[in-house]
Write a structure and sequence with these properties.
With 118 residues, this protein is an all-alpha fold. It contains 5 helices and no strands. The chain is elongated, with a radius of gyration of 22 Å. It starts with 6 loop residues before the first helix and ends with a helix.
Length: 118
Amino acid sequence: MLRRLSHKTAAILAAVAGLTVALAATVRAADDATGNPMQAQIDHGKSTYASKCSHCHGPNLMNSGTITPDLRAFPDDKTRFVTTVKNGKNNRMPPWGDILNDEEIGSLWAFISSRRKP
């Protein structure tokens, strides 16, 4: 036999359903249009790179005629990358550890890694 739900139980179920829909929408909003969270991180890194890094490293990860390295050839070494970004390098690259948070640096790594030369 079917049992009728009390108003209180129905209200709780409706609230849970509403929260589930809201959570799913939040997760989808964090992903890009294809539903790929990695692509969303790469896109965030691209934006951070354009505003914070491209003036020295060039818009395409290289800036010929300067002392900056071609970032497309940066080794597949995330620890080295994070350390260099946070602490700077050889008194030529300033430290960014007080300016960029760990998420932004991780997104930069995702962007640069996605553009690495084979």
